[in-house]
Amino acid sequence: MDTFSSKLATARLEIGLSQKKLADALYGIPHRTLQDWELGRRIPPEWLQKLLLDAIGRL
């Protein structure tokens, strides 16, 4: 299944950024938050998921 966690990790790897660098690029969100999203420990609301994936696509 294509979960937000897997989409986020895949998108990050496709643009070649570390979690830290991507977190900084995404409006300075905490690195730990991005890590939790990729591991599925936390899931942002759907509206934010779309915003994040769209923003990664523009990096």
Task: Summarize model confidence as the mean pLDDT.
Answer: 94
Low-confidence stretches: none
Largest sheet: none
The helical percent reads: 55-70%
Number of helices: 4
Description:
The protein is an all-alpha fold and 59 residues long. Helices cover 68% and strands 0% of the residues. The protein is built from four helices and no strands. It has helices spanning 4-15, 19-25, 31-39, 46-57. Helix 2 crosses helix 3. The chain is globular. 12% of the residues are buried. The mean pLDDT is 94.
Tell me briefly what this model is.
68% of the residues lie in helices and 0% in strands. With 59 residues, the chain is mostly helical. The mean pLDDT is 94.
Give the SSE map.
Layout: H1 4-15, H2 19-25, H3 31-39, H4 46-57
List keywords for this structure.
59 residues; mainly alpha; 4 helices; globular
